[in-house]
């Protein structure tokens, strides 16, 4: 079953690559059709990648990344795979995405980060993993809410403070 699953995924990725590498045609109307097909195909791949992160499908995420799929690609709502994996509590997928260079400071269309999603869903082990980089320095400059402001809004200010203090103590002892 896994072999069949992999074959289908590789076929989809190959099809997407074929669309991305297609030469433009001379006929303008055909070019528009090909461009629309290519955009649709790319959006379908993005949707599959984001869905795999949402569902915690480590195998699919690994296959996409192995074939060079961009780790920080966004869906129409502005969510990255890291945001989805963090929000839905899939720590193994979060670990994989971070290892491949996922931007933990990326913000969705509403200004929320993967860390904020993890805190909202009380996924504290994932929040600890994401908190290792301060994404709030630029937030104040751009008028976006900081993680502390977000935690206060949802009633998790004290828990975030405890997590941050524990992390600071760990750094000091190293």
Q: Can you offer a commentary on this structure?
A:
This protein has 174 residues and is mainly alpha-helical. Helix content is 67%, strand content 0%. The protein has helices spanning 2-21, 28-55, 58-66, 81-87, 91-99, 114-120, 124-130, 137-142, 147-153, 157-173. α2 packs parallel to α4 (81-87), α6 packs antiparallel against α7 (124-130) and α9 (147-153) packs antiparallel against α10 (157-173). The chain is globular and about 55 Å long. Residues 17-26 have low confidence and may be disordered.
Order of helices and strands: HHHHHHHHHH
Q: Approximately what portion of the residues adopt beta-strand conformation?
A: under 5%
Mean pLDDT score: 82
Rg of Cα set: 19 Å
Number of strands: 0
Helix % is 55-70%
Number of helices: 10
* Largest pleated sheet: none
Poorly predicted segments: 17-26
CA(first)-CA(last) distance: 46 Å
Helix-strand makeup class: mainly alpha
Shape: globular
Name the features.
174 residues, 10 helices, mainly alpha, single chain
Note the topology:
Elements: H1 2-21, H2 28-55, H3 58-66, H4 81-87, H5 91-99, H6 114-120, H7 124-130, H8 137-142, H9 147-153, H10 157-173
Helix pairs in contact: 1-2, 1-3, 2-4, 4-5, 4-6, 6-7, 9-10
């Amino acid at each position: 079953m896994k072999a069949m699953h992999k074959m289908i995924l590789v076929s989809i990725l190959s099809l997407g690559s074929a669309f991305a590498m297609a030469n433009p045609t001379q006929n303008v109307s055909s070019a528009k059709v090909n461009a629309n097909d290519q955009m649709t195909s790319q959006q379908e791949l993005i949707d599959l990648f984001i869905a795999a992160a949402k569902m915690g499908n480590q195998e699919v995420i690994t296959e996409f990344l192995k074939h060079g799929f961009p780790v920080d690609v966004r869906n129409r709502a502005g969510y990255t795979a890291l945001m989805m994996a963090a929000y839905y509590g899939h720590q193994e997928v979060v670990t994989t995405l971070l290892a491949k260079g996922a931007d933990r400071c990326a913000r969705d269309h509403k200004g929320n980060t993967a860390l904020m999603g993890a805190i909202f869903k009380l996924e504290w082990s994932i929040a600890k993993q994401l908190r290792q980089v301060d994404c709030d320095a630029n937030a104040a400059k751009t008028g976006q809410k900081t993680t502390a402001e977000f935690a206060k809004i949802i009633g998790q200010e004290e828990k975030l403070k405890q997590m941050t203090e524990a992390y600071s103590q760990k750094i000091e002892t190293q």
